Amino acid sequence: MRYFFLILMSTFVIYSAEAQIYEVGVFVGGSNFIGDVGATDYISPNQTAYGILAKWNRSPRHSFRASLIFSDLEDIDAKSDDPRRKERGYEFNTSILELSAGMEFTFVDFDLHSIGFKGTPYLYSGISLTNHDNNYFSPSGEFMSESGFSWVVGIPMALGYKARIAHHLVLGAEIGARYTFSDQLDGSVPSSNNDEQLTFGNTNNNDWYMFTGFTLTYTFGRRPCYCNF
Q1: What is the pTM of this model?
Q2: What integer is the mean pLDDT of 13-34?
Q3: Per-domain residue ranges for the chain?
Q4: In this protein, which residues make up the domain named DUF6089 (predicted)?
């Protein structure tokens, strides 16, 4: 049974490699945070974000997509429109690493083997896993480091537009929001139960962050057959 399974998987991989088209490339852009510290502007990149991504174009209308993105999240109360936050004067900066996987849907057919200009808006969503250091704010308002780090589950949601700019190159621009199932990215909720008295902000709202930027991917693979899916 084990050998049968290996043969079956090998056949599937060989068939997929011959029958589909793939993309690998880079993401470059910016990030901004939305939470209990700093401004709450939805699209206001203030830190560099960069990473790599890969796609498996399973049909002209949808692709399986995975990405790895690095960035810092930073926000400052002084830049907020809320006078209470300005008076408080908190600020934070933390590094994140995001792993994301999901599905990308195009508004029109995006068959890269067809002749002529190809471009389409698209939507992307799936699931993300974000690594960040554990931090908290001291009673004096100083941003402090806790020992260790945490992994946060989230939901990525992106809207973009992509177009073929050369025979094997696709350029895209997208705005992506990440809703996380955590309120700890900005240090407003310490990870240790011993520091619960240092919690502040709206604990009913979890943290968000945004990625805004460009993707450039290289396409390869034989002309696909989409008739079975």
Answers
A1: 0.84
A2: 77
A3: 21-220
A4: 4-228
What radius of gyration do the chain's Cα atoms show? 21
SS (H, E, C) the chain: CHHHHHHHHHHHHHHHHHHCEEEEEEEEEEEEEECCCCCCCCCCCCEEEEEEEEEEEEECCEEEEEEEEEEEEEEEHHHCCCHHHHHHCCEEEEEEEEEEEEEEEECCCCCCCCCCCCEEEEEEEEEEEEEEEEEEECCCCCEEEEEEEEEEEEEEEEEEEEEEEECCEEEEEEEEEEEECCCCCCCCCCCCHHHHHHCCCCCCCCCEEEEEEEEEEEEECCCCCCCCC
Calculate mean pLDDT across residues 44-68. 96
Taking Cα atoms as reference points, which of 46, 45, 44, 52 lies closest to residue 27?
52
Q: Are 155 and 127 within 8 A, CB to CB?
A: yes
- 21-220 under CATH 2.40.160.20, yes or no: yes
φ, ψ at 195 (rounded to 5°): -115, 25
Is the Cα dihedral 4, 6, 9, 14 positive or negative? negative
- pLDDT tens digits for 64-86? 999 999 999 999 999 999 999 99
Per-residue pLDDT at 227: 53
21 or 176, which is more confident? 176
Query: Which pair of tokens denotes residue 141?
Result: 């308002």
